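---------- Forwarded message ----------

FYI, see the Protein yippee-like record below. Original note from H. follows.
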Amino acid sequence: MAHSIGPRLYSCCNCRNHVGLHDDIISKAFQGRTGRAFLFSHAMNIVVGTKEDRHLLTGLHTVADISCADCNEPLGWKYERAYETSQKYKEGKFIFEKAKIVKEDW
């Protein structure tokens, strides 16, 4: 009998709540607050905080911090608005800090 393999998931480092799919990674070359970060097109089981303008390495953006919906562990942020034309592709996307997520069973 063949073993079915589901999607490759990323989980919260604290409680293992599923927060992202490997197939939704756009880039692994981002910088977060604590080091390397991944840009995801989608996220799940998260809470989006209050929007605020923040000066990041690539300029001014409106962002909202994201945290795990189960344990409130801070995980990264969501890009709500990019002010530079070259950064518009980030709008609506999510940054997960690499140190805050773990691969789930793969």
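H. also flagged this: The radius of gyration is 14 Å.
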